[in-house]
Write a structure and sequence with these properties.
Helix content is about 30%, strand content about 20%. The strands form two sheets. A nine-stranded mixed β-sheet has the order 3-4-6-5-9-10-11-12-13, sandwiched between helices. It has a four-stranded antiparallel β-sheet with strand order 2-1-7-8, with no helix packed on it. The chain has a single domain, classed as Alpha/Beta hydrolase fold, catalytic domain (Rossmann fold, 3-Layer(aba) Sandwich), CATH 3.40.50.1820. The longest helix is centred in the last third of the chain and has 16 residues, at about 270-285. Mean pLDDT is about 85; it is low at about 1-30 and about 330-335. By secondary structure, it is an alpha/beta fold. It has helices at about 75, 90-95, 130-145, 155-165, 190-200, 220-230, 270-285, 300-305, 305-320; strands at about 5, 10-15, 40-45, 50-55, 60-65, 100, 110, 115, 150-155, 170-180, 250-255, 290-295, 335. α3 (about 130-145) crosses α4 (about 155-165) and α4 (about 155-165) crosses α6.
């Protein structure tokens, strides 16, 4: 059994035993997402509903944004060793503060060749980063999810979280980027390489070919939106507390992603890895007191391979929000 997820020019397959991933149903014990455990659909207006899961108590609230075409399962289910499940990110974070995750339209999980579609209503594709950010904002308002928020974004979701922070700075007090996609990746490539990369960023493997509502993004327009939003201030200060740090942890993979040998446009796996690493370093330099952690045992999906690192990073940011004196300038740090 294998888990399939699509990122950039590759299809990632984890060749590990997987349990059946069941469709979640609304929890009978909690009618809203404001408090208590909640799993269900939320009406965001315009005749659309988005699937949301929340657990834990306390402030700030952690928002988990998954990567491209990825459902929220990867934050909560141990898909690597289900026979002896570890504490995964969502339940691990719920132990010390409130945490929520959701499905973007068109996301998916595939197990044993069976496609589990997004639990949120479909929308017309392709979408832009700005549209996804406004969806999340509408969801949080409709569900009355209490702020302030610490944003946690994996892969493409990391870029979305940076755009959210710049669009709604009054709501955001910290961030964790989990091997996040960067709009600066283009600058690390030749024009020919970037053109080839954008063409293969959103492949449709055979197992997803029948999913008519599959997520697509207008990558160039989304990147332009992020560049415009972050041109003057890459991440917002805490408006309600001038002089208080904005805690940022950048988690980067320590193992290269497996890449096909026949990439077009002069692309190579080694070249893409160099470009990705350079952008991880740039993200970690967005703020002078940001913390950069290298997940030595992980490839791209750090939340699956070393969930304890993501939980620890979130805990550090939460501690800094609650007590700013706990945050000090730190150099890049390897994983234990």
């Amino acid at each position: 059994m294998r888990l399939l997820h699509v990122f950039g020019p590759i299809v990632l397959l984890l060749g590990v035993p997987l349990p059946a991933v069941a469709q979640s149903t609304p929890a009978a014990s909690s009618p809203t997402a404001a408090s208590g455990d909640f799993t269900g659909l939320v009406d965001i207006g315009g005749g659309r509903q988005l699937w949301l899961e929340c657990a834990g108590q306390g402030s700030p609230t952690i928002l988990l944004e998954a990567g491209f075409r990825t459902r929220a399962d990867l934050w909560s289910d141990d898909l690597i060793q289900p026979e002896a499940p570890r504490t995964m990110v969502l339940p691990g974070v719920a132990a010390f503060t409130r945490v929520c995750a959701y499905d973007r339209p068109g996301t998916t999980t595939v197990t044993e060749g069976t496609l589990l579609p997004s639990r949120s209503d479909p929308v017309a594709m392709p979408r832009t980063a700005d549209e996804s950010v406004h969806d999340l904002h509408a969801l949080l308002a409709a569900a009355a999810v209490p702020g302030p928020y610490v944003l946690v974004g994996h892969s493409y979701g990391g870029m979305l979280m940076r755009l959210y922070a710049c669009t709604y700075p009054d709501e955001v007090v910290g961030m964790v980027l989990v091997d996040a996609f960067s709009e600066g990746l283009e600058e690390q490539m030749t024009p020919e390489q970037w053109t080839a990369y954008t063409e293969i960023f959103q492949p449709v493997p055979e197992v997803l070919a029948g999913y008519a509502d599959l997520e697509f993004t207008d990558l160039d327009l989304s990147i332009a939106q992020v560049r415009e939003a972050t041109a003057e201030v890459p991440l917002p200060p805490r408006p309600q507390s001038p002089g208080v740090p904005f805690p940022l942890v950048v988690l980067s993979r320590g193992q290269p992603m497996a890449m096909p040998a026949d990439l077009p446009g002069g692309l190579t796996g080694e070249g893409l890895e160099r470009a990705w690493t350079a952008e991880q370093d740039r993200l970690a330099a967005l703020l002078p007191d940001a913390r950069h952690v290298i997940a030595r045992e992980s490839e791209h999906y750090i939340q699956l391979q070393q969930p304890e690192l993501v939980i620890a990073a979130v805990q550090q940011v939460v501690a800094a929000v609650r007590d700013p004196s706990s945050w000090a300038i730190s150099t890049s740090t390897p994983s234990p």
